From TrEMBL, chain A:
WD repeats: 294-328
Coiled-coil region list: 64-91
The UniProt record lists the keyword Transit peptide: no
UniProt biased composition (Acidic residues): 509-520
Alphabetic keyword roster: Coiled coil, Nucleus, Repeat, rRNA processing, WD repeat
Subcellular location: Nucleus, Nucleolus
Biased composition (Basic residues): 15-25, 534-551
UniProt-recorded name of the protein: U three protein 7
SUPFAM superfamilies named among the record's database cross-references: WD40 repeat-like
Function as written in the Swiss-Prot or TrEMBL entry: Involved in nucleolar processing of pre-18S ribosomal RNA.
InterPro entries: BING4_C_dom, WD40/YVTN_repeat-like_dom_sf, WD40_repeat_dom_sf, WD40_rpt, WDR46/Utp7
Automatic annotation (TrEMBL), chain B:
Domain Sof1-like protein: 319-405
Cited SMART domains: WD40
Protein family per UniProt: Belongs to the WD repeat DCAF13/WDSOF1 family.
Upper classification of the organism: Eukaryota, Fungi, Dikarya, Basidiomycota, Agaricomycotina
Bias kind Basic and acidic residues: ranges: 391-410
Keywords, comma-separated and alphabetical: Nucleus, Repeat, Ribonucleoprotein, WD repeat
Gene Ontology biological process terms from the UniProt entry: maturation of SSU-rRNA from tricistronic rRNA transcript (SSU-rRNA, 5.8S rRNA, LSU-rRNA)
Region (Disordered): 380-410
Placement of WD repeats on the sequence: 75-115, 243-275, 286-327
Gene3D superfamilies recorded: YVTN repeat-like/Quinoprotein amine dehydrogenase
A cellular component term, taken from the record's GO annotations: small-subunit processome
Name used for this protein in its record: Sof1-like protein domain-containing protein
InterPro entries per the UniProt record, alphabetical: Sof1 (IPR007287), WD40/YVTN_repeat-like_dom_sf (IPR015943), WD40_PAC1 (IPR020472), WD40_repeat_dom_sf (IPR036322), WD40_rpt (IPR001680), WD_repeat_DCAF13/WDSOF1 (IPR051733)
Cell compartments where the protein resides: Nucleus, Nucleolus
Organism whose genome encodes this protein: Tricholomella constricta
Length: 600, 410
């Protein structure tokens, strides 16, 4: 047995003292790998091939060994993963587009679409096209992967097609007003906001559902990660419908009348509504009132859009007062930018994935890019224009950027036009999120995976990063002083019962104050008890005697009613006493005529 | 690019926890054949499938776990209860019984129902264990005796000078094979070295003991006070970990070959699989048909747990309840590993943790655990109130680990 113990001690002795290891000085690594040295001069070696960071060593103060090892392991892993992530940027194959101007007098907005089409390749030039359709002013929507386009004309012409290959999925003549169209989770289903209700159609145009609870819808938005279809209408009710279970999740009364503008923030699934009184309100399915209410314009808000680049930080609104404002969603102090637009009719706004803002107003579309659109400016100057394109057909009813393309699609009275905006689209797509080149099998797998990953609607908040963060420290301990000793923190479970009730707010304290005559702060117990005893003798107040007989923790409806009555009596007494103190006059309620009183 | 990354990961973690519970079907099969309760189980060291079981009617059965056949049946091996079984080298089985005999059986190709050898003893035997390398075995009756396979009388008695108790279990250490541990009816746990004859003793109450296969100085004791304790033999004053979950006496325990888990079978009709180092919330298995679990062992590949109980059945359970038993492709294995790491990362989340922790218990076990909790709470509160109302500093709360070992003798 001694040999066993000796062997065990040699490997890992049962020592009591814990040695804090001091960080050794790192040895020079260049002496070891000369091949790496020689290669590194002529190639770009990924950063992870160099020494990987070990992670901060801030846990040596923790005595618990298991916890310390686990924390060290986690931080090392995290810092290494971060370093390796930077390597992955090498794998991004495509670059964003841009327009570069030579010479001082040239401007990017002077470059017309013909010149862009000539300069771009044949593939990119397919983005410049016109669709001449009759059927009223058109609204359009792309799928999340940017491959399929849905269009809806005001008079009822609805079509969905794959614009890249030209395949038409479905075309319908609905013969009633269609105000908006949106795809659901992918191109296999789409929803149309028709005159009275919302209808859901299959890929081939077969009507699947009529959502009778969505009355007179004007705008639709689909939240893809929560599988929620949000609609707003002339009745002013914002309704959320879960399209995976079919349940109407919740309807919010906006109480601000009819609403014709809706946008979603892609990063936190919050719905932005623009109202007729100039307010922009932000809604989540969890609050019955708007999370944020902002007075944006001096007239009805005509268009709202949220910037998907930069984590949903900026929002652009346009009002019928003729201004466009860019807001910072993190502090709602004032508009970041604000400029007037000359438009005869309404303005439409849309941000692209790389932060380009398209403003369709009057006779054409103007495109502004960052960083100038995000920099705060106190004057009402127009931001520097990036691109412009005139469209003779009024009104311009929709602007949509195609997700992974440099294409902007404008819906107007005579159909649709697509223009090329270099640098507007995100060049690299993550095929696990949205893949423009997915085949049938991939689409089916993605649908199932997305259903499994469906996020519950009660996780929608203004700040999406709260998931997995630490809860605020619970009030488990109460600081109590016992007989003049220094205050001690006692956990909730160890408190006496009365203290526990007091901490949780359930203690009944009406009887404690009911006997106090006057507002003396030093209600000594002995004096109070004496008073109680005196009162009990002779003409005892039967009400109070009845209450005293009841135990404090028994909730008896009669006792509750009596307590309320006592409360009222006490308040009356208090008021009378206050009036007596101030000299007989009862305090008057403030009225509008107070401004005419003469100062004494 | 990837919005709601954490919310989606949390949803996946919740789904992973739910799927784990959905596919948790741990019961594999029940091997019948004994007519009375099963007392002891033993696993053949070099084999994955051979398990021997001994029962109260004196019968011994050798099972093949994969084909569910009986390889050898010895219905009248002993006159009374078969109290101990262990395997010797070369396809031989040693059994001891309360009829004061130790019998050596051949179980290979030339198995017969007559023993190869009989070793008569002076008193009823309680336990037997074989040395790792030499042809020695140790038995426990009212003293610990070392026998040689070739001699018909014990070669040495390892007793403690002042002991007058019955030794209930004896086990050789798995790496340092001359070290032996035993537990006795007088609340003792004793360590011996057969070469030097030295003995060390701690006083403690237990039903079963098992040496850790990977950490040779760690020993696990299944106690009568519903807990299991691991001790490091270099430092026997306090246990290194206490495992609390059973609501009745723990009758048997066995380590997994990996040394990271162990199984315990209890008088409360449940089998619990614990992780080494985590003293609460083990995996629980129970069935209406399984009565008091008297013995439990891990299989050699650490994938199955075999239990023997009072109703006379040997049951095979999966060590991980939601394991898939068939062939797993690489892609499936990657998905399983991803789900495991998701559950591990989000186990502190209220909902995910609740789904992962909650187990259905039989009503009697649930009620017993509620009652136990109330009683222990009352004791604790009383102790605290006593301390609050006496002079400060007179009594200090005693650590749970320090309460275990009552006294030490060498």
């Amino acid at each position: 047995m001694d040999s066993l113990i000796a062997k065990a001690d040699a490997l890992q002795p049962l020592g009591k003292k814990r040695k804090i290891s001091h960080p050794k000085k790192s040895r020079d690594a260049s002496a070891t790998d000369r091949t790496l040295q020689s290669v590194a001069k002529h190639t770009s070696v990924p950063k992870s091939f160099n020494k990987l960071p070990d992670g901060p060593n801030t846990y040596s103060h923790i005595a618990n060994k298991k916890l310390r090892t686990e924390l060290n392991r986690h931080t090392t892993q995290a810092s290494r993963a971060k370093a390796l992530l930077e390597d992955a940027e090498m794998l991004l194959a495509d670059e964003a587009g841009k327009i570069e101007v030579e010479g001082e007098m040239e401007r990017t907005w002077r470059v017309g679409q013909d010149e862009i089409v000539q300069g771009a390749g044949q593939e990119a030039a397919r983005g410049r096209r016109e669709w001449k359709l009759d059927g009223g002013p058109y609204r359009s929507r792309y799928t999340r992967n940017g491959r399929h386009l849905a269009i809806a004309g005001r008079t009822g012409h609805v079509a969905t097609f794959d614009w890249l290959t030209g395949t038409l999925h479905s075309e319908l003549q609905l013969q009633e007003t269609c105000r908006d169209i949106t795809f659901l989770h992918d191109q296999s289903h789409y929803a149309v906001a028709q005159k009275k209700y919302v209808f859901i159609y299959d890929r081939d145009g077969v009507e699947l559902h009529c959502l009778k609870s969505h009355i007179e819808p004007t705008r639709l938005e689909f939240l893809p990660y929560h599988w929620l279809l949000a609609s707003i209408g002339n009745s002013g009710y914002l309704k959320y419908q879960d399209t995976s279970t079919g349940q109407l999740l919740i309807e919010h009364r906006t109480k601000l009348g009819t609403c014709t503008t809706m946008a979603q923030n892609a990063h936190n699934a919050v719905i932005h509504l623009g109202h007729q009184n100039g307010c922009v309100t932000l809604w989540t399915p969890n609050l019955p009132h708007p999370a944020v209410q902002l007075l944006a314009h001096m007239g009805p808000v005509v268009s709202v859009s949220v910037d998907p680049s930069q984590g949903g930080r900026y929002m652009a609104t346009a009002g019928r007062d003729g201004t466009v404002k860019v807001w910072d969603c993190r502090n709602w102090k004032g508009a970041v930018r604000d400029w007037p637009v000359r438009s005869g009719g309404d303005v439409e706004l849309e941000w692209s994935a790389r932060g380009a803002l398209a403003v369709a107003s009057g006779g054409g579309v103007n495109v502004y890019t960052r960083p100038s659109i995000h920099t705060p400016m106190h004057t009402k100057a127009q931001p520097p224009l990036y691109l412009t394109h005139p469209i003779p057909h009024r009104p311009l009813t929709s602007v949509r950027f195609a997700p992974f393309q440099d294409i902007l699609t404008i819906g107007h009275a005579a159909g649709l036009s697509s223009v090329i905006v270099p640098g507007a689209g995100e060049p690299n797509f993550d095929s696990a999120e949205a893949d423009p080149f997915e085949n049938k099998k991939a689409r089916r797998e993605k649908e199932v995976k997305a259903l499994l990953d469906k996020i519950q609607p009660d996780m929608i908040t203004l700040d999406p990063e709260f998931v997995g963060s630490l809860a605020p420290p619970s009030k488990l301990t109460t600081v109590t002083t016992i007989d003049g000793k220094p205050p001690v923190e006692i956990p909730f479970a160890r408190l006496p019962r009365l203290e526990r009730l007091k901490v949780s707010g359930k203690a009944d304290e009406t009887e404690e104050h009911s006997d106090e005559e006057g507002l003396d702060d030093n209600g000594k117990k002995a004096a109070r008890e004496e008073r109680e005893r005196r009162k009990q003798r002779g003409k005892g107040k039967s009400l109070k005697r009845y209450l005293r007989k009841q135990r404090k923790n028994v909730i008896d409806p009669t006792a509750v009613a009596i307590r309320k009555k006592l409360e009222k009596q006490r308040e009356e007494k208090l008021r009378a006493r206050m009036a007596a103190k101030t000299g007989g006059e009862e305090p008057r309620k403030p009225s509008a005529l107070d401004r005419f009183k003469r100062a004494p | 690019m990837h919005p709601f990354a954490r919310a989606r990961e949390r949803t996946r973690a919740l789904n992973a926890a739910k799927m784990d519970r959905l596919f948790a079907k741990p019961f594999v099969d029940s091997l019948e054949g004994h007519v009375d309760a099963i007392e002891v189980l033993a696993r053949q060291p070099g084999s994955l499938t051979t398990v021997a079981s001994g029962s109260w009617d004196g019968g011994i059965l050798l099972h093949n776990l994969s084909t569910r056949n009986k390889l050898v049946k010895l219905p009248q091996a002993h006159k009374g209860k078969v109290s101990g079984l262990c395997f010797a080298e070369g396809d031989r089985l040693l059994s001891c019984g309360v009829d004061r005999n130790i019998k050596l059986w051949s179980i290979g190709s030339n198995a017969s129902d007559q023993p190869l050898n009989v070793f008569p003893g002076k008193s009823a035997f309680n336990s037997i264990d074989h040395h790792r390398t030499d042809s020695l075995f140790a038995t426990a009756s009212n003293l610990v005796q070392i026998w040689d396979e070739t001699k018909s009388a014990p070669i040495s008695n390892l007793t403690f000078p002042t002991s007058t108790e019955t030794i209930t279990s004896v086990r050789f250490n798995l790496s340092e094979s001359s070290v032996l541990a035993s537990i006795g009816s007088d609340r003792t746990f004793t360590l011996y070295d057969i070469r030097t004859g030295r003995a060390e003793r701690r006083v403690f109450r237990s039903n079963s003991l098992a040496w850790s296969p990977t950490f040779p100085t760690t020993i696990l004791l299944a106690s009568e006070d519903h807990n299991l304790y691991t001790f490091d033999i270099r430092h026997l004053a306090t246990p290194s970990q206490i495992y609390k979950a059973h609501v009745a006496a723990v009758m048997s325990c066995d380590w997994s070959p990996t040394g990271l888990e162990f199984v315990s079978g209890g008088w409360d009709r449940t089998v619990r699989i614990w992780k080494e180092g985590q003293g609460h919330s083990p995996e629980v298995y129970h069935t209406k048909r399984m009565q008091r679990v008297s013995s439990s062992i891990f299989s050699a590949d650490a994938r199955f747990v075999i239990t023997g109980s009072d109703d006379g059945n040997v049951r095979i359970w999966k060590a991980k309840a939601s394991d898939k038993l068939g062939v797993i492709t690489a892609r499936e294995r990657a998905a399983i590993e991803y789900r495991e790491s998701l559950k591990d990362r989000w186990r502190m989340d209220t909902q995910v943790g609740k789904v992962a922790r909650t187990r259905h218990m039989p009503k009697s076990v649930h009620q017993a655990s509620k009652l136990k909790r109330t009683m222990l709470d009352a004791q604790r509160v009383k102790e605290e109130r006593r301390r609050k109302h006496t002079r400060a500093g007179e009594t200090k709360p005693k650590a749970e680990r320090k309460k275990v070992v009552i006294a030490e003798q060498t």
